[in-house]
Amino acid sequence: MRRLQVYTSLWAMQPHDQSGVKLPHDQVCEMVAGAGFDGMAIDLGASDVAVAHAVRPHMERNGLTPLIVAFPKTIQSLEDTLHMAADFGAPFVDVIGQVMPLAIDDMVPVIETWMGMSQKIGVPIQFETHRNCITNDLYVTLQLIDRIPEMRICADLSHYVVDREFWFPLSEHDLGLMSRILAQSDSFQGRVASRQQIQLQLDFPQNQKWVELFKGWWREGLEGWRSRNPKGDCIFVCELGPPEYAMTGPDGREMSNRWEEAQVIMGWVREIWADLEREEAAR
After folding, report:
1. Which molecular function terms from Gene Ontology are attached (predicted)?
2. Chain centroid, CA 270 distance in Å
């Protein structure tokens, strides 16, 4: 059986909207579960292990599955996070590796060592496409997956749209590069970017071309995941970050309601998944 599991991020809920109010963990978890999310990512770059342990009982009480996002600054430090993820019951660890050699030949042993730790401890890892980490650049990541075909990706394509400053419409060449990332991806993250902005408001008219581009990528990613996986859970994280990810006006107030937008993205993704199921059943 295949399931789509849609998460949000604890980081995205601190605060969750333009009010700027940071709600206590029990209220956050009740809101997230009540809105229909299946889990919540705990970002160890935006918080710490103490926060993860503090929010855990509230997640468990509300039936939310935790996903651990790690920012290891040394090769060895990932090991503790893997053990923590096993204890938390996380489906995998999303690695945003802060060990960043300059040369591909020096990057490969880092990735392979982390993958070896993952296998030894028995917790899967995925490498998120993210700025300021070992997968910072699209071209570098493509070279890494060529060298290490077993390396699995968590696709947050917003970072590469900004990183490469893609012109719209994207060329067939650039679309093909992004398709290679999606074909290597076992999970996905939801945020819409443009070539200059990491996080766009979903309903602004000028942003619609980028919204449609990302919805197409999410469909491509989910369809590819389904073709590779006859069973299991496909995880999609709606990750709309607070300022300064979220754009603000001169009063410092966010220009859109991220909590509402996260639920919009969840609806889009569930609709895409249902469409793919119908198409598969009709074949």
Report:
1. isomerase activity
2. 16
Predicted TM-score (pTM) above 0.85: yes
Largest CA distance in the chain: 53
Closest CA to 184 of 144, 232, 216: 144
**DSSP string across 157-178:** THHHHHHHT--SSPPHHHHHHH
What Å distances lie between residue 117 and 100, 109, 110, 146, CA to CA? Answer: 18, 12, 11, 21
Pick the CATH number of 2-282 from 3.20.20.150, 1.10.10.10, 3.30.70.120, 3.90.1150.10: 3.20.20.150
DSSP 1: -
Q: Which residues contact 223 (CB under 8 A, 6 or more apart)?
A: 276
